[in-house]
Amino acid sequence: MSVNDSVNRIVTGSGVILAGTFIGMLLDIITKKVLTSHLAPADFGTYSLALTVISITGAFATLGLNEGVPRYIAFFRGKHEEQKVHELIISAMIMGLIAGLISVLVSPSLFHALAGNGFDAQGKVLSVVKILIFAVPFTILLNLTVAIYRGFDRTSVNMYFYNIIRPVSLLGFATIAVFIKASLKGVVFADLLSMIFTFSIMSVYFIRRPPVKHKAKQERKIQFSDTTRQLIRYSFPLLITATLLNIMSWIDTIMLGYFKSAETVGIYNAVYPLVGFLSLVVSSVGFVYVPITSRLWGQNETAPLGSIYAVMTKWCFLLTFPLFALIFVYPEYFITKLYGAQYVSGATSLRILALGFITNSYFGFNYHTLLASGDSDFLMKCSVASAGINVALNFMLIPEYGMIGAAVGTAVSFVSIEVLMTLRAWRKQNMHPFTSMYRKLTFIVILMVGAMLAARNAHLLTGALWEYVAFIVGYFLIVNHAKILDNTEMEMIGEIRKNFRYRISLRIPETFKTLTS
User: Fold this and answer.
1) Residue 498, domain member (yes or no)
2) Of 316, 318, 343, 394, whose CB has the highest number of CB atoms within 10 Å?
3) What pLDDT, in 10s, does the model give residues 28-64?
4) Is Membrane set as a keyword in this record (predicted)?
């Protein structure tokens, strides 16, 4: 597979994922609006805490297989070892089902032991957990089914079920619960029914549009050979990695709550989610990038990988930078428009966090490249080091500097893990994104941000809408004039446009026709 073909498939597939992510986020906002209009703040808080418990339980019970399965399916497909693919699918589903059933039995008791004498002394959260826990086996099997399709390059399945069917069904069931004026437990049952409904639709889809072609379904026997052990050995470090990265996302809140006031925690938690948008493009593209590059590893066609890594990193950073620049230069504007003037004291923290999170886009697909190459052990070590740096800096900085200290700790820890992964990809695989054009782009964006900051400090910029539009237009004009994208890349973009239009006009309607026929 050539560089052009690989990039075309990655971008075309990730465009659908990105669109689905935005749709899912919008539906989530609408659902929360419906629920908060019905539930009292205390009940909604109880529901949110229970969802957090269920999310943590589901993350552990998935065992890291949601990342390991697509990598190994794609890898063995590249090696044309179809029987190993069958074993991976069957063993992953069995392990997921067993882990889900164990979670149903263990999680409520464990939560009661940890929180029963603390913030949930009255057992309100536990009563909700006891209902929602039955969604965990369905969630795990749904995750693994999406992961299986992902291994076969059918990444748009994630959009259909996680970004459309699941949130639409949740909104529908939640609206019915609100309409009949159900209690908190009624709303919780609506959530559970939504997951069961989504899993049922997925089961129908799996039967009608299986990931494995019919001619490849000759031998299906349950076995746990070295292939399964290899999958477990690869996936377990990814479970640790995901857990530690999740810890980094809420350790700031815990330590701010310990050292500072609830008001400080509230302001920090309001601005923190904004920087998540800086990783949206990379995460969407990465969802498609991993199975495609894993298959190249399996075929031993590693020559194009360095170019794919460099091209995709440049494109993702080029698209993400305008949002970073606006957040970094006008943090007060974003905060005031979204939350009101009372949250504007979080502007400096937002700037610091933005500097940390933009490195995810700038260094690009280091994590995904290491994931595809099978280097999960190193990813675990990186996450351990980064989490340790985060905790240490928080202890040192939060007592004196509050939310600014928390932002510095988080930013430094994220930068450190990006640098470590980039160095690893360079030293082990001889891959990096820093071509001459990428270095030129780096110089351009630094000059543009510096010029904007200088103009703003000189009161030449006011934050008017026309300034944002002028900046974005000017940015892309400069990029075009500097020829950051060469002729080959422009040809790739032309082919991508054709394929993307094909997917929108044909593939999505065909899928819904399959579901309804």
Assistant:
1) no
2) 316
3) 778 877 877 777 766 766 777 777 778 778 777 877 7
4) yes
